[in-house]
Amino acid sequence: MPKALPIYAIRLRAARGTTTLSQRGLGLELDMDPGGASPRINQYEQGRREPDLLTAQRLAAALNVPLAYLFCEDDVMAEVLVGLHRASKRKRAEALTAMTIALAPKRRTTEKNAS
Question: What's the whole-model pTM score?
Answer without folding.
Answer: 0.85
